[in-house]
């Protein structure tokens, strides 16, 4: 954590204060100040929150991270299921998500007749898991179908509930050429199980141009509908004479035949349901109600269930996604018929093939995709959400994968979920976070820490770096990828792993967490850190500076915000994303000078051009008029890009286009609106409108999230970036200006690793702006809270230091003391103008520790695929080196314990000194014991621990326990799969130094 002060409340103290408050010893909490209170107003006295802080110190399982729990269908043992619930709970995690995912198991090895998904054994195991979860106070989520997308074994591709596709056939005709015979056959064959194909339409169009590359252009006005001319599947038609060639289309509807991913799961086969019709959702609900949910399971779901879950919307077809009532739904929603536009919406292998000559063809495609998006929301998300509620559960969904309004859909479901694997920058998280916020929901979940090619080799440093960016993007629930069931047919040591080996013996996706991993022994520390961080990130409501209004709510695109992503974030700006549909939300109101005060609290709107397709300046009439209303009410708005020729979104009438142009012209003339033609113009436009960020700092990789709860500001700050392997993170050490909700708030630091709360005494204040020093190592985070002096259950120090030449100043039990790495005379200046000095006496020289005894548990295959042998190897070391460079340990994975003895002179322990142990580089996780006592206060992103309370003059024994990943051993155990992975450098790599620091009371 960043080092500010050392007067802190430990977990035990905090719980004690909480108990005292319960007994009436502390001042009772006043009613919380409203979130809309003006900046600079005075927070009422007596708003201490000892109860809340005790929840931070000792977080509930409801805020703890979860695991994906991969099962090989129902081929599991109930006793093992119960054991695995206990393993997860014992490690400090708050839940599991049951999913039948087993890509590593060879086809045919699983018994889908005896142990299918949804069968008797599977249901028995789910009930056992729920019962044990109830005992352990954790929650279980359950995936709606076997793997993904949602599928059931009660339908075939011909069923009305099955997913469908539109496939086309085509014949090109020369001028005057006749076609007599069968209509053009589908361009691609049907999937297995598809037995029926329905002809929807036959059409012909004149070809305008046929470039060597790119889409063929058709003359829209030439279109001929030949559907009624089809007799017994044949058509007789002659292309007009002249100079132009023609194309004859046939459009067919059929079942897509898509199966649940990574089968087999059931017998009969489970086919993917139509995600765009109510029949598809009802087929899933009917199967659960008739085949899965018994009276006992219903009770257990209400008691220990968390949510029904669906993975990303991976509708796979080489043709065009379709649904049976799409033509009728399209005309009702868009106001024109779809059939004449079929040539420009059809796809082949995810590519459009044709454009029309006289319109902006992308407008029709946008309308087409919007209808699919709306149908998915109305006929899939809403029914499943309401059904989940009927069983006392929430509905958690990765509502993205197609060209859909994921921002709006994030507000429809209870818990939207994103994923770190698909995220290309921090804004890929913020897109869904914004949809959550505007709808008034709290949680954004994330399928976290899946890395391609990193199975059994992902380090905790990588995992924490990923979480840092996730959290800065608005995520506040981590579902780690993942925890596999112990075994499955054909699995070798160390047991079944859902994604490794992955298909053709590739390494696959990480990680197979659990007791099979050496780092599992240290994972409770990580779980507690994540839980405390998530507790902070669920406090109150988020508050951002800017919101970018987009034409499309697509997710996981990597398309960031103009200027802000690259230039605004590095200096403290924050932003979100909304679409026109977001402005129809109940919370999209203007109050206190901010848009959506309970759903983002944005200071200004930046209206973007369509950065996804065409770079057009488009809005719906309703959105344009809404923006004008906001501008008239004084909300700052920036029009980014070229808005000289605006138009309506989609394929619209001349009247609608004219109305959008009229409203945008009024916007451009509003005193609340500024223009920003290019990226560099955005900060100029914002400044002209009087918009400044709530946080300000020099350019760095610092990212943050601000949340406000009852007048208390929570700032999560992290040193993180999306691809630190490519562009290395460096330590951060600079001032950060934070805006307080109330001018009399004082700063505290929350340590998510230890649970301690430290009131800060070194800060500067300018009204509601508070400046603190932030020091963060790569991937390290901290939490700064601006709150009343009695917020943590006791009065924070009244002294405020605004300047010092020491490294840091902290509150002590009696007054103020400074901390420095060198001796000398140091001074401090207080906010009231007083100055004081303190002298740090001579310090002993640092000692580098080079001689160690290394004892390694060498993890190896045991008597069965799920048993690990752990022979111990001892090695004397005269210098530190990675295990890979130590004879006999090159291929070792496991847990190593480094032991050394060091004699400290009498000058090492005085009232004016402390002792730090600097470990240097450590791979992967570590724990430290000094003289047999565990040093509990440590941060795995900063291998420096304070051992002042444990070391003493004379002889001292220091033990550093290091846990590794499993890849080095797997490289030789299973070289066919893992031999391609580079050998990892494990261990305590140092240099290890015992370093004194000076402490002096300020007088």
Cross-sheet strand order for the largest sheet:
1-2-3-12-15-16-17-18
Envelope shape: globular
Bin the strand percentage. Answer: 25-35%
Unreliable spans: 1-51
Work out the helix count. Answer: 19
Rg on CA atoms, Å? 31 Å
Overall residue-averaged pLDDT value: 93
Q: Provide the structure class.
A: alpha+beta
Number of strands: 56
The helicity comes to 10-25%
| Euclidean distance between termini CA atoms | 27 Å
Major sheet summary line: 8 strands, parallel, barrel
Give a brief outline of the structure.
This protein is of the alpha+beta class and 1003 residues long. 21% of the residues lie in helices and 29% in strands. Strands 1-2-3-12-15-16-17-18 form an eight-stranded parallel beta barrel, surrounded by seven helices. The chain has a six-stranded mixed beta sheet with strand order 13-5-10-7-8-14. A six-stranded antiparallel beta sheet has the order 19-30-31-37-33-34.
What does this structure look like?
There is one protein chain. Strands 1-2-3-12-15-16-17-18 form an eight-stranded parallel β-barrel, surrounded by seven helices. A six-stranded mixed sheet has the order 13-5-10-7-8-14. The protein has a six-stranded antiparallel sheet with strand order 19-30-31-37-33-34. It has 19 helices and 56 strands. It has 1003 residues and is of the alpha+beta class. Residues 1-51 have low confidence and may be disordered. Helix 3 links the parallel strand 1 (66-71) and strand 2. It is 21% helix and 29% strand. The longest helix is centred in the middle third of the chain and has 30 residues, at 361-390. Helix 1 (11-22) packs antiparallel against helix 2 and helix 4 packs parallel to helix 6 (295-304).
């Amino acid at each position: 954590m960043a080092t500010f002060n050392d007067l802190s409340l430990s977990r035990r103290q905090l719980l004690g204060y909480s108990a005292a408050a319960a007994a009436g010893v502390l001042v009772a909490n006043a009613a919380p100040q409203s979130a809309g209170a003006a900046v600079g107003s005075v927070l009422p006295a007596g708003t201490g929150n000892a109860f809340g802080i005790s929840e931070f110190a000792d977080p509930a399982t409801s805020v703890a991270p979860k695991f994906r729990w991969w099962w090989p269908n129902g081929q599991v043992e109930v006793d093992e299921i119960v054991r695995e619930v206990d393993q997860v709970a014992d490690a400090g995690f708050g839940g599991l998500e049951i999913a039948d995912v087993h890509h590593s198991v060879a086809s045919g090895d699983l018994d889908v007749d005896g142990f299918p998904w949804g069968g008797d054994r599977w249901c028995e195991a789910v009930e056992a898991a729920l019962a044990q979860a109830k005992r352990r106070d954790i929650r279980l989520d359950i995936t709606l179908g076997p793997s993904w997308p949602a599928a059931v074994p009660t339908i075939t591709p011909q069923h009305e509930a099955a997913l469908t596709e539109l496939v086309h056939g085509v014949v090109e005709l020369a001028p005057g050429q006749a076609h007599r015979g069968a209509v053009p056959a589908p361009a691609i064959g049907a999937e297995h199980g598809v037995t029926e194909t329905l002809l929807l339409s036959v059409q012909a169009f004149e070809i305008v141009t046929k470039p060597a590359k790119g889409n063929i252009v058709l003359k829209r006005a030439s279109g001929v509908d030949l559907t009624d001319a089809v007799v017994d599947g044949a058509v007789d038609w002659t292309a007009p004479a002249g100079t132009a060639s023609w194309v004859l289309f046939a459009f067919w509807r059929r079942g897509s035949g898509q199966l649940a991913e990574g089968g087999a799961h059931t017998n009969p086969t489970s086919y993917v349901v139509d995600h765009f019709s109510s029949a598809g959702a009802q087929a899933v609900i009917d199967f659960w109600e008739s085949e899965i949910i018994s009276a006992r399971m219903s009770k257990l779901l209400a008691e220990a269930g968390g949510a029904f879950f669906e993975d990303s919307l991976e509708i796979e077809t080489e043709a065009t996604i379709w649904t049976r009532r799409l033509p009728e739904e399209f005309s009702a929603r868009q106001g024109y018929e779809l059939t004449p536009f079929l040539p420009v919406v059809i796809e082949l292998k995810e590519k459009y093939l044709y454009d029309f000559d006289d319109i902006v063809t992308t407008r029709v495609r946008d309308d087409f995709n919007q209808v699919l998006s709306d149908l998915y929301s109305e006929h899939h998300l809403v029914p499943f959400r309401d059904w989940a509620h009927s069983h006392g559960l929430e509905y958690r969904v990765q509502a993205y994968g197609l060209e859909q309004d994921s921002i709006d859909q994030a507000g429809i479901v209870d818990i939207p979920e994103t994923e770190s694997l698909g995220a290309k920058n921090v804004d890929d998280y913020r897109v869904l976070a914004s949809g959550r916020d505007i709808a008034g929901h709290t949680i954004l979940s994330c399928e976290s820490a899946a890395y391609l090619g990193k199975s059994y080799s992902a380090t905790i440093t990588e995992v924490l770096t990923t979480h840092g960016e996730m959290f800065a993007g608005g995520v506040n629930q981590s579902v780690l990828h993942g925890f596999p069931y112990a075994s499955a047919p054909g699995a070798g040591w160390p047991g079944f792993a859902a994604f490794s080996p992955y298909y053709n013996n590739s390494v696959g996706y990480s990680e197979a967490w659990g007791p099979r991993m050496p780092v599992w022994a240290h994972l409770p520390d990580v779980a507690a850190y994540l839980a405390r961080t998530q507790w902070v990130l669920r406090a109150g409501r988020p508050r951002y500076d800017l919101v970018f209004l987009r034409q499309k709510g697509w997710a996981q695109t990597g398309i960031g915000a103009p200027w802000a992503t690259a230039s605004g974030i590095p200096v403290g700006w924050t932003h979100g994303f909304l679409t026109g549909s977001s402005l129809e939300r109940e919370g999209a109101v203007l109050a206190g000078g901010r848009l959506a005060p309970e759903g983002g609290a944005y200071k200004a709107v930046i209206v973007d051009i369509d950065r996804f397709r065409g770079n057009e300046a488009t809005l719906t009439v309703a959105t344009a008029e809404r923006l004008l209303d906001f501008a008239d009410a004084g909300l700052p708005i920036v029009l980014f890009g070229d808005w000289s020729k605006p138009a309506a979104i989609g394929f619209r009438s001349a009247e609608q286009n004219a109305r959008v142009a009229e409203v945008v012209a009024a916007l451009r003339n509003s005193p609340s609106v500024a223009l920003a033609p290019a990226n560099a113009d955005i900060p100029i436009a914002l400044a002209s409108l009087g918009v400044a960020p709530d946080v300000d700092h020099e350019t760095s990789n610092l990212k943050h999230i601000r949340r406000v709860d009852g007048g208390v500001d929570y700032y999560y700050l992290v040193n993180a970036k999306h691809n630190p392997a490519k562009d290395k993170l460096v330590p951060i050490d600079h001032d950060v200006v934070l805006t307080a909700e109330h001018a009399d708030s004082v700063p505290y630091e929350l340590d998510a690793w230890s649970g301690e709360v430290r009131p800060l005494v070194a800060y500067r204040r300018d009204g509601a702006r508070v400046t603190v020093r932030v020091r963060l190592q790569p991937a390290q985070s901290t939490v700064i809270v601006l709150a009343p002096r009695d917020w943590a259950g006791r009065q924070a120090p009244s002294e405020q230091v605004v300047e010092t030449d020491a490294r840091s100043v902290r509150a002590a039990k009696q007054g103020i003391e400074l901390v420095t790495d060198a001796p000398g005379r140091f001074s401090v200046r207080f906010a009231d103008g007083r100055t004081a000095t303190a002298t740090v006496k001579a310090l002993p020289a640092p000692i580098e520790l080079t001689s160690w005894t290394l004892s390694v548990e060498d993890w190896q295959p045991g008597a069965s695929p799920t048993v690990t042998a752990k022979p111990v190897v001892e090695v004397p070391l005269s210098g530190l080196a990675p295990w890979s460079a130590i004879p006999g340990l090159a291929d070792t994975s496991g847990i190593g314990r480094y032991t050394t003895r060091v004699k400290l002179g009498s000058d090492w322990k005085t009232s004016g000194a402390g002792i730090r142990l600097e470990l240097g580089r450590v791979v992967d996780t570590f724990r430290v014991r000094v003289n047999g006592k565990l040093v509990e206060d440590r941060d795995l992103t900063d291998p420096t621990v304070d051992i002042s309370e444990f070391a003493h003059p004379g002889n001292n024994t220091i033990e550093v326990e290091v846990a590794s990943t499993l890849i080095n051993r797997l490289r030789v155990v299973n070289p066919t799969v893992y031999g391609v992975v580079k050998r990892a450098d494990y261990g305590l790599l140092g240099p290890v130094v015992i370093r004194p620091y000076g402490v002096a009371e300020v007088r």
